[in-house]
Structures are given as structure tokens and as C-alpha cells.
Amino acid sequence: MINSAARPGLVSEYLGFTPNPTFYLESVCSSSTMGLRVAWSMIEAGLHNIVAVIGFQKMSELSSREAAERMGRGGDVVWESPLGLTMPAGYGMYARAHMATYGSTSEHLAKIRVKAGLYGARNEKATYRKGVTFEEVISSEIVADPLKRYDCCANADGASCIILARGDIARRVCKIPIWVSGLGSATDTMAMSGRTLLTGLKCAQKAATDAYKMAGVGPGDIDVAEVHDCFTIAELMAYEDLGFAKPGQGVNLIEAKETYAEGKIPVNVDGGLLSKGHPIGATGGSQVRTIVRQLRGEATEAQVKDAEIGLVHNIGGIGQYATVTVLRRK
Amino acid sequence: MGFDSFGIVSFTGETKAAEFVNFLTQGKVMATRCRDCGTVSFPPKMDCPDCMSSNAEWFEITGPATLETFAVVTYGPSGFENDAPYTLAIANFGKFKVFGRMSKDIPADQLKVGMKVKAAPVKLAGDRISYEFLKV
Which class for A328: exposed (0-12), middle (13-18), buried (19 or more C-beta within 10 A)? Predict the structure, then answer.
């Protein structure tokens, strides 16, 4: 395995970028949209004209149990990892709290997985290109109760690349440039015990507020969204954290199929992480790719009609890091 | 006992709050309070994140606390394979919350959000030590 110190130079040289500057950026699962945020800042500051944000992860070098242990160290490694905290357990605790507070159920979560399967089957880049039935999801084995196997995304290998350019350059070289309109990012405590809210991610709420403000839009203006569905409960909480539904009412969106491609607010109509798999460092870039294709009218797997404003919600760890990005066609 | 004795698997042997483990061996689960601004911390913090003072004092967590949420881990990660199933939980002690494990003595059908719990040290195999939540 190539250690992190060697990665940026290696990729940069392979792509023929030497002697241009390169560096490595880390915020676990949200790394590539954090990279987008930094790239935008460097272009706005006049430091660079074009920046490539490359995300990658090769998880197949680890066994499933090893990956579970490694990911479980994305949070508080001093106090919480030693007790056996894993990502499914962390999100399982969010799921239990959401269910106890609002009456959401495993059946609601299963419907989110069924939606992911429908679109994942059409996505040639997805790890799982197969639909799943409600019965298959609901009867799958427990991983971290209340979360079952099909409530969890899969480890995957993957890579993504976002190329960001100064506006005048983008207009010249790109047939349909897509514009970064709003950038929000926030953090929450490393320790799960520090979370004041357990029915949603406060960092996602703050990132969304900041991204909407910068873009001058609200939740009702979003035509299509990619949210970080590392677990089904994560998508349900995203509906509420992003303001697509009030707290506790996210279940109504999936019940009424409003987050399907034909619905009021299509979410993860590329299959999401639940179908695509979750190659940690590459995931945010993959989400951005889907929204860019949607806004260009090129999303052959499930094009949302006349999509002009899109949103990407990308979470790092068990809600330690969040980025929300608003993208526009015009 | 060093801090690398804490928990089922240790990933880091060092912390400024390593004394936590000594308190566990004395039968106490402890948190910290900033003597200057009163901020309480769990996990313990010897440097206050609110006022940056390093004037911290220890106090014992007594409770009772309210169980806010829990998840029953059936798929153990590396190092925890033989440990599963185990239940991770967050308990609210009022001014702070504690993440920990539920005692395996509590039957699964008695686990409930809102139940009253207290934290108590627990000795583990291989001369290791931790704490867990007991039913009050």
C-alpha cells in the first residue's frame, strides 16, 4: 500500500503535471468535495487558473473486517474506537434515536434502499447493478441493529476527478460549464458523546445553511440532489438536514416517492453510495459528477427534467465533517 | 496501569487524561471540569476547549443517566470478532453525554431508549479495563 505522503506526487507526475504544485487533503469520506472547496478558493484568490481535484481509494486491499476497524478509527480513536465503534454502529445509533424520537421505521429505511437499487441497476459505474426488493432488504442480516446489511453501502475501489477552472477559461474550453454557486462546510465533535443532536447531523445543517446563503437559494430551489447515503438512515437524515423536509418528516418524502427522479426533489437517482459503493476519497467527486451530468442533461440513467440547480451533500466519518455544494447550469 | 490498557483494543497509548485508567482501577468512572470556567468534559479533557485553561479537576460520574440511543453490533471489526454481539450506547448525564457499552448482563429485550443507567468500571480479559452501563 502506498502511504499518504507519496500519493500526491505520484498521481501528479503520472498525469504529467510536474512541476505544478500538488498536495494531499484529508477529511475521510468528504475529502474530494473538501478538495473542491479548496480548489475554488485557490482560483478565486488568483493563485491558480485550473485545478484538478482527484479522489481515490483502493479498499479491496483490506478484508471487510479490517476495513470496518479502519473506518471505525475515523472518529475518536482514543476513547471510542477501543470500545469497538464502527461506522454502521455510529449510524445505527443515529437510526435508533431517529426512530425513538419520530417513529421512523426499518420499513422506511428499506424503501430508500429499494430506490437506490432501481437507479444503481442503470448506472454502469455502480458496484451493484442490481435492484433489490423490499423483502430482500428487510430480511437481510443484522450488521448493527437497527441497521441491516442492505442498509449499508459497500466498500469499493474507485477514483474520481473534478476539474475546476477560472470562469473565462471554463467558458472557452467547456461546451456546458457547470458553476459552483454555493459552498458550505462544517464539523462536529470527533467523539459521538459530544453530539448534542442524535436525530440529524448538525454539521450538515450548518454546511447547508452556508451553502444556500452563498448561492442565494433555498431547499425548494434544488432540482436534483446527491446526498451521502453511506447508510439508509444517512439519506433520511439528509432530507431533513438539507431542509427538503422538516425534522421527523423525511419519511413522507420516501413514502410518497418524492425523491425518485419524477418526484418533487429527486435524490441519489444514480443509485447513491448504497449501489455505487463507497470508495472513501473518491465518493464526493462521484457525487459531483452525477450532478454535473444532470445539469448538462447528460444523465442517461435517470435524467431529471430541466434540472438547473443541483446540490451535493458529502459527509466525512460519522458526521465529523460535512460539505454541501450548490451547482448551477447558468 | 497505562492508558494502553483501556478498552477491548488499544489504538493509542497516550493521552493527557491517562489517569482515567487509574481511576477505573479504583472503581470510579471520572470526567473533568475546568476550574476556571466550569466547562465539563467527557471524554475527559485536561485542556479546556472553551477558555483554553489547563486548570482541570476530576469528578466522578454518578448519574443516573438516560439512555439516548444504542446499536447492537453483530459484525465485529478486526480485533473485535470474538467480542460481538456487543451494544454501543450514548447516555445523557445532564451536562454531558457518555459513549460506552451496555453491560452484557442486560437482556436484549430490556434495552430501551429512555431507560436509566449508570456507568461502572469493568475488568476485561488480558488485564484490560473499561467501563460499561448498568441498569439502574
Answer: middle
Count Cα atoms within 13 angstroms, Cβ side, for A39.
Answer: 25
Dump strand ranges (E) for chain B.
30-34, 40-41, 56-60, 65-73, 86-92, 97-102, 116-124, 128-135
Q: Distance between CA atoms of B38 and A42, rounded to whole angstroms?
A: 41
Residues on A contacting B at a C-beta cutoff of 8 Å = 63, 65-66, 68-69, 72-73, 76-86, 88-90, 92-97, 100, 141-147, 191-195, 198
User: What is the least distance, in Å, from the CA of B6 to any CA of chain A?
Assistant: 7
The CATH number of A4-328 is 3.40.47.10
Note down pLDDT in tens along chain B; length 136 residues: 899 999 999 998 899 999 999 999 999 999 999 999 999 999 999 999 999 999 999 999 988 999 999 999 999 999 999 999 999 999 999 999 999 999 999 999 999 999 999 999 999 999 999 999 999 9
* Cβ B75 vs Cβ B58: under 8 Å: no
CA distances from B98 to A28, A39, A88, B37, B40 (A): 24, 38, 19, 21, 12
- Looking at the DSSP bridge assignments, the partners of residue A278 are A155
| Domain boundaries defined on chain B | 3-135
